[in-house]
Write a structure and sequence with these properties.
Layout lengths: L2 E4 L5 H10 L15 E5 L2 E11 L2 E9 L8 H15 L4 E6 L12 E3 L6 H4 L2 H6 L5 E6 L3 H5 L1
Parallel strand pairs: 4-5
Antiparallel strand pairs: 1-2, 2-3, 3-4, 5-7, 6-7
Bound molecules: coenzyme A.
The site of coenzyme A has 18 residues, from strand 4 and helix 2.
């Protein structure tokens, strides 16, 4: 049985291995590791997702599932858990950049957006400025409303 849980500091190397295998950037990962979630199958980390916090906005990044377990629902579960932790920490809107999953994120409720709609602090993040080309698609999703997250 694969469980989804908060990442531990010791998971960092396994997360990096997953990201490299999925051709996703490592740059800025240290900004997201505290809120990362992993899929754990026994002792093995088989999936991950992370959120970089920027006030009430967050950058969903590093969503990856090991190749042999793709298509089993892990990606969806990882994103749902990352969204839940982000909402708990006061994030209301998640943004993401992708060059490889433009047809997948809309299935999880993400809407196409633009770089101009991204808050300035988030647009200055390493993933936006250094890792992803301007051609990467931008998506956004409201995960909590202000009144609810402040209760
Ligand atoms: C994108 C990714 C995380 C999805 O994980 P997953 O565990 O396979 O996803 P799920 O099992 O929840 O969903 C599977 C469904 O999504 C579809 N899907 C998976 N990846 C997709 C993609 N990149 N584009 C479009 N559809 C995709 C599958 O075909 C499957 O469709 P079905 O339900 O109609 O059969 C995984 O494919 C992956 O690690 N890709 C490489 C890294 C990446 O591109 N990450 C996203 C950018 S951060």
């Amino acid at each position: 049985m694969t469980s989804i849980e908060r990442a531990k500091p010791a998971d960092r190397a396994a997360i990096e291995t997953l990201l490299v295998a999925a051709d996703l950037p490592l740059i800025g990962l240290e900004l997201a590791i505290a809120t990362a979630v992993v899929a754990r199958d026994g002792d093995n980390v088989v999936g991950c997702a992370a959120v970089e916090p920027y006030g009430s906005a967050g950058l969903l990044r590093s969503v990856a599932v090991t190749k042999t377990l793709r298509g089993t629902g892990l990606g969806r579960r990882l994103v749902a858990e990352a969204e839940a932790f982000a909402a708990e920490s006061g994030i209301e809107t998640l943004f993401l950049l992708t060059e490889s999953a433009e047809d997948w994120f809309p299935r999880l409720g993400y809407e196409a957006s633009t770089r101009n709609a991204v808050p300035a602090t988030l647009a200055a993040s390493p993933e936006f400025t250094d890792a992803c080309p301007n051609s990467a698609a931008v998506f956004r999703k409201t995960i909590a409303t202000g009144w609810r997250s402040r209760r």
